[in-house]
Amino acid sequence: MGRERKQKILAAVKGHALLRGKFTLSSGQESTYYWDGKMATTLPEAAYLIAEEILEILKDMDIQAIGGLAIGADLMVPAIAVVSHLKGRPIPAFVIRDRRKEHGTEKLIEGQFPKKIGAKVALVDDIITTGTSISKAIEHVENEGCKVVKVVVLLDRHQGGSDKLKREGYDFTAILHSDASGEVTIDEPSTVAGQVKGGAIPK
Predict the structure, then answer these.
(1) Which helix (H) or strand (E) holds 23?
(2) In this structure, how many other beta carbons lie within 10 angstroms of the beta carbon of residue 104?
(3) Are the C-beta atoms of 155 and 36 separated by less than 8 Å?
């Protein structure tokens, strides 16, 4: 079922979230394609399948909560929490704000964030390029005393971010992968000598 589920997720991504053209990424780099992951994570079937796949990845891990940085993750974690409940192994969810709330509770992390120091959490996002967003999420979580034991993304552009996390010792998994041309697959692409990763256009 795992590969069949990934194929269905891939079909949703290619049909709704993958745009061709010339785009400037959040990293400032230019790309021949753009991944609008929210167009996949807000589709009912795709959201359910993505949540199922992430829960399958986490099934043998002792996770106290799952979360991520707004806005890429905050469309994913509620679906994961609901599906985890339906499957009888509920995982509470949290979302990390881009900046601390300036009124009321003044929270940086919203939702069911573990209060226990050393609690194990997983982080998710819809994409990783250079890894800046995930690294920021990790920093916020660890500053609050929890331990990030797993990072899962929907799409890895293979533009340095996942390699950076792995070098830093984080357990990382991507559901889908893209190569330099923007071809998205369920298998990690081979590195071709001289190829610019992630579809970036050399300046």
Answers:
(1) strand 18-24
(2) 6
(3) no
Q: Provide the 3-class DSSP secondary structure of residue 194.
A: coil
| Closest to 32 (Cα-Cα) out of 24, 40, 43 | 24
Please name the residues in contact with 68: beta carbons below 8 A apart, sequence gap of 6 or more: 74, 76, 77, 95, 96, 123, 124, 125, 137
3 φ, ψ to 5°? -70, -40
Residue type, 60: D
Q: Could you tell me if 175 and 150 are in contact, meaning their C-beta atoms sit under 8 angstroms apart?
A: no
Q: Taking the complete model, does pTM exceed 0.85, yes or no?
A: yes
Distances in Å between the Cα of 20 and the Cα atoms of 34, 86, 142 are: 6, 37, 37
Interval 13-67: pLDDT, tens: 888 888 888 888 776 778 887 888 899 999 999 999 999 999 999 999 999 999 9
Q: What are the contacts of 15-18 at 24+ separation with CB within 8 A?
A: 16/40, 16/43, 16/46, 18/182, 18/184
Q: Which architecture does CATH list for 2-199?
A: 3-Layer(aba) Sandwich (3.40)
Instruction: Give the DSSP H/E element, type plus range, for residue 11.
Output: helix 2-16
